[in-house]
Amino acid sequence: MRAIELSFLFAVLCMLYKASFLCFLLLNKSYKVAIKKGKNKEARRMKKEKVVGEKIKSAVEFLGKVKEVETLVKSVDELAKAIGKKIQNDDTLGSLQDKNGSLLAGVHSVVSSIKTKLEALEQTVGVSDELKKKVSTVKTESKSFLDKLKEGNAELGIEGATDENAKKAIDRIGKNDGDKGVVELLRLNKVVDELVISIKAEVDKAVKELTSSVKSEPVQSSN
């Protein structure tokens, strides 16, 4: 009888051992699967962050180049302040009426210089078609402004270009109804402003996307 009890006990212990070993294998397998899933999730998160990071980098670089164009266009406002002026040997500008031919030629040169920059922006990889379309609009409006200046070359393309005609051509602040280029310059400024706003929105959107990715998918521990 004692032998039977011992045999039964031994059999039970063997069953418990096998069950324990089986549980160990299952738990170990589950643990490895969990680690693998965690690593896969982390890999997906890192891949997503890389894509979004590259998007942010491209948008910021694009914005920087757009700001260069904006600076050139806005510089016309500063040049317009020199209408009818000349340099003196002090900190003020003196009067030099009706001698604005060179000044207007300078404005033409400045705006012409943005053409190459805009064409490069149109070919930028990784930028939305919507933004490229806005770049093309800026290029079109800059051409319209230059064409208007060339159209008035009889009055604007001479050394004795009058203060009044010069203001009608480039002084969008003091002569916003000017019919020799100001109307076109106003449109050019408007589309440049819209382009800058749009690209800033793209940058903000990408940053929010990256922030959301980090918050929604925390790094999984593999220990």
From TrEMBL:
InterPro entries xrefs: Lipoprotein_OspC, OspC-like_sf
SUPFAM superfamilies with a match to the protein in the record: Outer surface protein C (OspC)
Membrane topology (UniProt): Lipid-anchor
Compartment list: Cell outer membrane
Transmembrane segments: 6-27
Sequence similarity: Belongs to the variable small protein (Vsp) family.
Entry protein name: Vsp protein
Lineage: Bacteria, Pseudomonadati, Spirochaetota, Spirochaetia, Spirochaetales
Gene name per UniProt: vsp_2
